[in-house]
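Below: protein 1.
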Amino acid sequence: MKAPASAPAPGSSQAPQEPRWLTDEEQHVWRSFMEGVTLLDDHLDRQLQRDAGMPHVYYGLLVKLAEAPRRRLRMTELAMLAKITRSRLSHAIARLEKNGWVRREDCPDDKRGQFAVLTDEGHDVLRQTAPGHVEAVRQAVFDRLTPQQQKSLGEIMRIVAEGLQPAEAGADLPWLR
């Protein structure tokens, strides 16, 4: 994100306001962050595809359902917890249903609402897959960091996540799309 050659916008009588370009150090941090996130996501996806035939996002959905009371969540709440669009969630749940790992149930008090429910088979798959996944996460992240670095990473990512989830109405968040 270095400063490109800039020209005033066509038809503009004012010079455009100069963006706050990243410093060389910020550029290095940003690119390292993006490379790490991309490689970590690929690493975890490959491990879960190999061990359970599912992508990382599907595993995350099974975990959220396993942690929920009665292993069930409203679809809108599951989308919010997973930080994904409703469309992506619907597609993922359809695939998980096809595997017999999740089922949908209508909400008795809301004709348009649905629950996603983790089946016993889905719970078994999660239990069988979790040890390998935890080991992959441990090797890729936690074994490489000191306890202080782990704490700092958690604090930093919490701040970033909070900043990207504004509380005001009309916020453009994935689970609202």
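Below: protein 2.
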Amino acid sequence: MRWWDIEPVLELEKDLFPEDAWSRGMFWSDLAHARGPDATRRYFVAEEAEDAEGAQGGGRRIIGYAGLATAGTESDSGSATGADVQTIAVAREHWGTGLGALLLTELLRAATAFECAEVMLECRVDNVRAQKLYERFGFEPIGFRRGYYQPGNVDALVMRLRDPSASVPSAPVQGTESNG
């Protein structure tokens, strides 16, 4: 994800998470930490070509995005000790296509590159589709955060994956183009 992706990502964010959508500033802040030798974030977008009728100049449309933040470092190696999935979102018309799994795979590859020992995430308790995806990758429920999602006061299920490198397929995932 790059700065020019923020506006189309915000449109998708507001559609998918109307009550608790991230702000422009939140994305800018995370992207500020996604480049350079001291990067602690990694963000990806998935795009598809717009059809000739709807596109002015045959552009591309963002149909998903995902972000990861690392936390803590081990003093001798400088590697991150853990990571948090910040967000994964897929346009409604692409639900069930495997795009969420592709984006999660990219996040786990990033966590592996950051040498993270574990990955954590929060998921709305009412988002069973996402929970099943995370479980397929080996995430396990470890607790709840009451009223985590505001203003709806919805609880979050906290999940953890130990050793993200063990959950990453060795061959590249085929399918929708993903740009980091």
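The mean pLDDT is 87.
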